[in-house]
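Supplementary Methods S3. Input chains for the assembly prediction are listed below.
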Amino acid sequence: MRTKDDEKQEALFEATVKVVNRMGFASSSVSKIAKEAGVSPATLYTYHKNKEDLLISTYLNIKRKLTDIAFEGIDDSNPLWDNFRRIWFNLFRFTVKHTDYFQFSEQFANSPIYDQVNQKEIDRMFRPMGRLIQYGIQQKIIKDMDVDMISAFVFYPVIILSNPRLCKNFSVTDEQVEQSFKMAWDAIKL
Amino acid sequence: MRTKDDEKQEALFEATVKVVNRMGFASSSVSKIAKEAGVSPATLYTYHKNKEDLLISTYLNIKRKLTDIAFEGIDDSNPLWDNFRRIWFNLFRFTVKHTDYFQFSEQFANSPIYDQVNQKEIDRMFRPMGRLIQYGIQQKIIKDMDVDMISAFVFYPVIILSNPRLCKNFSVTDEQVEQSFKMAWDAIKL
Amino acid sequence: MRTKDDEKQEALFEATVKVVNRMGFASSSVSKIAKEAGVSPATLYTYHKNKEDLLISTYLNIKRKLTDIAFEGIDDSNPLWDNFRRIWFNLFRFTVKHTDYFQFSEQFANSPIYDQVNQKEIDRMFRPMGRLIQYGIQQKIIKDMDVDMISAFVFYPVIILSNPRLCKNFSVTDEQVEQSFKMAWDAIKL
Amino acid sequence: MRTKDDEKQEALFEATVKVVNRMGFASSSVSKIAKEAGVSPATLYTYHKNKEDLLISTYLNIKRKLTDIAFEGIDDSNPLWDNFRRIWFNLFRFTVKHTDYFQFSEQFANSPIYDQVNQKEIDRMFRPMGRLIQYGIQQKIIKDMDVDMISAFVFYPVIILSNPRLCKNFSVTDEQVEQSFKMAWDAIKL
DNA sequence: GATGAATGAGTGTTCATTCAT
DNA sequence: CATGAATGAACACTCATTCAT
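Predicted structure tokens for the full assembly:
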């Protein structure tokens, strides 16, 4: 008996991202993705129940990679601002490096399939962020607001800025990035 | 492809938004849209060259409605903050009222078809905003940054917050909206 | 606008019967049926909602043709035996002439799709037979039994005998047919 | 294709019957049957050359079980009627007890694969019945007719009556069964 | 101008079967 | 001997678009 191949699994994830970005959500077909991954369409179905499952898994895979990196180097004994800044730059670096992941994610998150994603799993991944925010609010360092607003004003802009399709003028110079961070911090600081 | 009947034209736009939001970009078909609009698929083709054209037109239609409303009541003799605040609230009210338009727009803008949109036309629609920003920068009221960054930190958050799929917790109370505006202003003010 | 074509509809029925008999229920595909009927598989779907609908319609079509012929020449003023004999011979002639219809029907009726056939419609078609039976029972000419038993002992044998796959030896000579009728009658007469 | 494990072999037969009855011939797949039998699809192929072979074997298996039981208790020294009645009731009891076997058999026998069944083997199984008939004809107890007619008027009705899909009204009470037997006997007796 | 019928090309998915382990 | 992974070929069905009316 042959055994399932982790490389194939990963190839499928990468192929999904690539094809969705190249052709768009609407024109991405299972067979195109399979071809891109170098497997037969039928094989794809031994790794994923159906197309939806493939898309959702790919999305979660990205989120996991993102959160794995986002909270690297965070130390609760550091000042809030330091931790916050570190997370923000971690994210920024990741989104810039993997613009393809986020073009995929945006297309995915705006489609109705997104409703089927297990939100609890997402929430769990971002828990460290939640704790940080709450601590900042308690300490009266940042404004008292809910997590959605933080996302909207701090992290979504990162995604937008690093999307070359949407922000054709924005260039990732140190200066621009520092200014962006300042804007994010100004938005939430008390 | 002659536009004979404006009512049918508008019905097609509305149907497109409705179907895309209900089924997602991937599952939206010309015949479903035609049926939703109450016309034959063949008729649709007398109004639009093809499916792409229909989607792009629908997107531009939304952007036009948006910008028509955004700059209502703006008077260059008012203080910058007043004008800025008015635009922001105009937009907020519009996005909340027409969440369907923006779910469509987001799906559209993240797909490769978006590249075929005539950016100059979009830029022209948002020109008044550009002028306002430039004036604010000149007067040292707001930070010196390009338009992309304004969009990212001021207007995108509006779209995100008013998207019920993404922000399940955000509630549109006066207080929350005021706070959101404050965050937007804090982000850009010098 | 083109109009739906009754000839195509009929061609689809005939093709369905032919293909199912040639390949068997299990190997009959929509595309084979469409090709046999000389239309595109896509066209088939303007005439039938799906494969199931095509099969059920074909079955009902056969039953309708059968019952249209079965009760030809029946006159309530004739003796029961005469009417009964006429119906039996009508059926026999029809089944022998259209063995393909009944090979299809048997495959169909033994598959689970059969459960979805509207039994009331079938019952309605065979109502004249029901009345005849009831009259015969009342007049103490035939045994008192339910319709299922009549079917099983009188009409099913007709189908079996005229199925060349099952009855390789039975030859349709006048003598054999007369003897078969006698057996059917002996089975039910009091 | 070696028969190692008789239990697995029998499990495959039962699984085949079960799956074919549940899903119909058209939707029965090798892997579903394998799963139902609790083995891998690959294993199935060590017991049967291919799908066809599995189906044919299953059919023959049923026929063998049927004929093993049908002629139980037959004694050539008993009167013909006694033997005939005993066989008929043996069959009736078996078909009622194993309706699933006969739903399978009917689907099978009406499909073109049936043509590949070795008829000689079937004939051999039913030889005792043939001898009985011939004796009855010689003795002028039953009508002079070929075996197909006997099958059609005596044994097929049994299958039909005990098929709950086809005979929804027929109830297996002693009285109904006796009457059915009488009909069968009346059909063939001189 | 408006329509529903028509279709080649494509969709997502399952199939019977083989193969490496 | 037994297995689940692998696959080319086929499946039922829908697509965007055209065409005859």
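Chain A has a mean pLDDT of 92. Residues 1-5, 39-43, 46 of chain A lie near DNA strand F (CB under 10 Å from a C1').
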